[in-house]
Design brief:
By secondary structure, the protein is mainly α. 76% of the residues lie in helices and 0% in strands. The protein contains five helices and no strands. The longest helix has 26 residues. The relative contact order is 0.16.
């Protein structure tokens, strides 16, 4: 099978996109904030002062937290990979990554403020 000129495998495309330092940094910050959301949510729930805000996930989060948090992190990784594999111009990809990264800061910051009694 011959490869078509100009076409790259997904791995090659990820390698090309992640060659940009700003893209790598935003992707890493996005993943770290997703992990912080999991950690702060678990910490808040462990205090027994808070309940899971999503009624569909309340019971399963209490019974199988690793399953729920693992699925959440897997979804975040899938979203990030999809975003990185989209054929977008550099500036548009960067803008979308910035928006996703800033939006992903909301949950852990809110969780920390609630745990601290500031919200």
């Amino acid at each position: 099978m011959q490869s078509h000129p100009g076409r790259h495998s997904p791995i090659d495309q990820l390698r090309d996109v992640l060659a940009w330092r700003d893209t790598r940094t935003l992707a890493l910050v996005f993943l770290v904030t997703q992990l912080l959301d999991v950690v702060t949510t678990q910490r808040a729930l462990a205090t027994r002062r808070f309940e899971e805000g999503n009624p569909w996930l309340d019971d399963v989060t209490n019974q199988h937290p690793l399953l729920v948090y693992g699925a959440k992190l897997a979804c975040a990784l899938l979203v990030l990979l999809t975003l990185l594999l989209l054929r977008l111009r550099w500036r548009l990809r960067k803008a979308v990554l910035v928006v996703f990264t800033l939006a992903s800061l909301v949950a852990p910051v809110t969780n920390l403020l609630r745990i601290g009694g500031l919200l």
